[in-house]
Amino acid sequence: MKIGIVGAGGVGSACVMAVVMRGFAQEVIVIDRNEKRAKGVVTDMQYGATVSPAVILRDGDYSDLKGASLVMITAGINEKAGGATDRNDPSGRLKLLSTNAGIFREIVPKIVAVAPQAVLLVVTDPPDPLAQLTRELAGHDQVLSAGTFLDSMRFRWHVGTHFGVSPQSVEAMVVGEHGTSQVFLWSLATIAGVPVKDFKSDVSFETLQKQVEQEVRFANITIIEGINASQYGIGMICARIAEIVVRDEQAVIPIGSYNPRYKTVVSLPSIVGKKGVVKVFEPPKSAAEQQAFERSADTIRKAYEGIR
Fold first, then answer.
1. What is the dihedral of CA 295, 88, 172, 96, to 10 degrees?
2. How far apart (Å, rounded) are the C-alpha atoms in residues 205 and 217?
């Protein structure tokens, strides 16, 4: 199977690395407007790829995407360069939308012209309104936002670490926007089937909620403060999404897709296969969680309307 990655910056390079390490793709095409950068990434990684499952790595142009099953779009200005690193700014990643929308209007038609059947995975921030824009530009619904999959893994990690268990033993999910309005479904969070709120802790449940939500909601800024860009985690997550699509796994993950009920791209647990999202689930939520989710969807919808 062939996949494409458009954008060879920090996030794009991390996606390439993770795809190679997971070993599910037969061919990976890397495209960047800076051709030397794409060539450098491919040249560097192709040597290490000799110890991974066989894969062909190529830098190229849009014509090389012909026949791709999935194309990741990672191109655009990042949070640090775009000034989206203020924890007190409720707009968060949405500050990047106008600039990155202009880039997407140039990129997406080029992809669709040569790979009209490919699933398009939007990674660039803010991914939800950009996925809505991509859907309009592409003229089809095989468009995914990386959405809250990474946020959900961060949620699981912090809960698991607090209680001293593997994050893999935690069931916890973030829905809504991949951004400051995201919603933590604490009412459904469990460890071994036991609600997290019933576990004994050295802090109150309300304090735990506040601590975990603060850590997850602003994890990107914490990472940027240390290494200038949030890239490795999202690279790993996007490689997993691509693997699910390419292998038609029908796996259920929290991911962004267009939802007619909310009239926007928003993350909910969904079955994902070779054509993208197959079915979206509406998990039971508390009244407060449902209200927060609707506000989150409204935030995404209004952001998109602002660039139409």
1. 70
2. 18
Residue indicated by tokens 């993350």:
267
Beta carbons of 181 and 89 less than 8 angstroms apart: no
Q: Residue 126 has what DSSP assignment?
A: S
Mode of pairing for the β-strands spanning 251-259 and 194-195? unpaired
Give pLDDT, residue 252: 98
Question: Please, is 206 exposed, middle or buried when counting C-beta atoms within 10 Å of its C-beta (0-12, 13-18, 19+)?
Answer: exposed
In angstroms, the CA 85 to CA 83 distance is 6
Name 270's Cβ contacts closer than 8 Å, sequence gap at least 6: 252, 253, 254, 255, 257, 277, 278, 279, 280, 281
Rounded CA-CA distance 84/124 in Å is 13
- DSSP code of residue 9: S
Q: Are the CB atoms for 11 and 223 separated by under 8 Å?
A: no
pLDDT at 248: 98
Q: Are 30 and 60 in contact (CB under 8 A)?
A: yes
Cα-to-chain-centroid distance, residue 269: 13
How long a stretch of residues is the chain?
Answer: 308
Which of 140, 158, 162, 178 is flagged as catalytic?
Answer: 178
Q: Whose CA is closest to 138, among 159, 111, 156?
A: 111
178 is annotated as an active-site residue: yes
DSSP-derived 3-state class of residue 54? coil
Average pLDDT, the chain: 96
Tell the residue number behind the tokens 């796994």, with chain if given. 249
- Tokens describing residue 100: 């990155």
> Over the stretch 55-84, which tens digit does the pLDDT of each residue have?
999 999 999 999 999 999 999 999 888 888
- The C-alpha atoms of residue 15 and residue 22 are separated, in whole angstroms, by 11
